[in-house]
Amino acid sequence: DAKTTQPNSMESNEEEPVHLPCNHSTISGTDYIHWYRQLPSQGPEYVIHGLTSNVNNRMASLAIAEDRKSSTLILHRATLRDAAVYYCILRLRNSGNTPLVFGKGTRLSVIA
Amino acid sequence: EAQVTQNPRYLITVTGKKLTVTCSQNMNHEYMSWYRQDPGLGLRQIYYSMNVEVTDKGDVPEGYKVSRKEKRNFPLILESPSPNQTSLYFCASSPGLVGDTQYFGPGTRLTVL
């Protein structure tokens, strides 16, 4: 899997939008961009994934740069329950049989 | 509710005493795997299984065994635990070839004294 780079930590106020960046300059044309998060004392949780177009689901939005060398996970209104470590991972489509390679991720703190 | 369950959630044991951590999923997923998470090292895959009776080594299989006799269960066995196996363990499942999202269990914190 290609490498991703994320800031170590970010901070947000409650009910404000949060933009979590991820750089993946060596991404290949067949790599999907996945985001997982890990809340304190819990297992990782799938958030969203995309290939080229921006994606929205009930948890978040994913904005992908036109050259695909970077992406941004957007939480539209951060809540205290969104405080977690967020991981950006590149994966080939249908690579469910290979391990997810988690980097260090971004630790998001949400301030009330 | 679709979920992956693990038991026990917490375990303290002594060196050499065989133990089993159970993992079960109710989503009829083909693929299951075990990870361990250690500070500074992230999540590393121990073993995985693509279907019943099919298992294979991940990145850090030494000291562990697994079995997949039924589709829903994938126990992790430590025949002779050692202190370097003190870690946080996660079981995960996914549909496999036709789907990519992995669903993780809540974790088992193991301490080997």
Keyphrases for this structure?
heterodimer; A: 112 residues; mainly beta; B: 113 residues; seven-stranded mixed β-sheet; 0% helix
Q: Could you characterize the architecture of this molecule?
A:
The complex is a heterodimer of chains A (112) and B (113). Chain A is mainly β and 112 residues long. Chain A is built from no helices and nine strands. A five-stranded mixed sheet of chain A has the order 1-9-8-3-4, with no helix packed on it. Chain A has a four-stranded antiparallel sheet with strand order 2-7-6-5, with no helix packed on it. Chain A is globular, with a radius of gyration of 13 Å. With 113 residues, chain B is mainly beta. In chain B, strands 2, 4, 5, 6, 9, 10 and 11 form a seven-stranded mixed sheet that branches. A four-stranded antiparallel sheet of chain B has the order 1-3-8-7, with no helix packed on it. At the A-B interface, strand 4 of A face strand 4, strand 5, strand 9 and strand 10 of B.
The sequence of SSEs of chain B as H and E is EEEEEEEEEEE
Q: Round the mean pLDDT of chain A to the nearest integer and report it.
A: 91
Largest interface: A-B, 21 and 28 residues
Largest sheet of chain A: 5 strands, mixed
* Distance from first to last alpha carbon of chain A: 37 Å
- Oligomeric composition of the shown chains: heterodimer
Strand order of the largest sheet of chain A: 1-9-8-3-4
Helix fraction bin of chain A: under 10%
Q: Rough shape of chain B?
A: globular
Distance between the termini of chain B: 36 Å
Cα radius of gyration of chain A in angstroms: 13 Å
> What is the number of strand segments of chain B?
11
The rounded Rg of chain B comes to 13 Å
Instruction: Report low-confidence residues of chain B grouped into runs of 5 or more.
Output: none
> Percent of residues of chain B in beta strands?
over 45%
- By secondary-structure content and strand pairing, the structural class of chain B works out as mainly beta
